Amino acid sequence: MENDFGELKQDKSDTKEKVYYGLHQHGILVFNVATEDEIRELKREIPNVHLQQVTQASSDNSDLQDNNFLYKPYFLEKDLEKGKVINFPSLKNKNEAPFLPRQFVESIPFSSDKISEILNHFSINRNTKDAQTIKETIKFCEATARKGQKQNCATSLESMIDFSVFMLGTNNVQAIATEVQGENQMLQKYTIKEVEQVADGVNMVCHKLNYAYAVHFCHGGGRTKTFVVTMIGVDGTKVKAVSICHKDTSLWNPKGLPFVVLHVKPGTTPICHFLQDDQIAFLPFEEAY
């Protein structure tokens, strides 16, 4: 067992980073006020070398241009329409952190008061970006859930499944995730080819966090509709994207990013978003269409 875990640590021994990083996720912090950095990011999501091409793509979709957003991470259910063309970056997250068996992760501390022990375990210098990321991820996981919310950071596949059974109240659970055929991270046009509703009811979504191994922030999505949306990019990238539409947004922050980009108010209309390919949606199997 020790040899297996040692091999994992050796996988990145020839690099300066010992933490796995993904791309920015807009979907987790819907209860927070949108920051200027978040808003600015949506206006310059890609390198300047691609700006002319994306600007032209935006000009073909006038509903995506208000406030000069290059794309909108949130959208309305009516936007999930066959034949519609949208601007969107690749949903391939690039966070390749592997799951470790439960017996491994349970032997490794995961708490703010054990930071020194954790950094020593992974041979991470406390003055590095990786050390700061370790601290931030654990702090995020230790935050108290908001009233009426249930959440958990799953540090293994086994603990993720256990929490999904607890959240959904059934052992008959299915898991779905976005599939991306292509490596392109550039923002580009995608044409929606097919929209399939796969569930209508409660679900649980797990978002992969930056850490030394796979850690997922899992939470209840509340009353939702879940869709699988087949799209194809102008460069040929094929995507089967999981889209979650939240029916009740009344508890979301009225100054949060969804309402900044959509110009709607909390609780007035369902709000949808795609899941990146390292995020997992859990659904009661009997709700599958």
UniProtKB/TrEMBL annotation:
InterPro entries in the cross-refs = BURP, BURP_dom
Report the PANTHER family cross-referenced here.
BURP DOMAIN PROTEIN USPL1-LIKE (PTHR31236), BURP DOMAIN-CONTAINING PROTEIN 5-LIKE (PTHR31236:SF54)
**What is the official name of this protein in its record?**
BURP domain-containing protein
Organism, per UniProt?
Datura stramonium
Which stretch is the leader sequence? none
Which part of the chain is the BURP domain?
74-285
The record's section on Pfam families has:
BURP
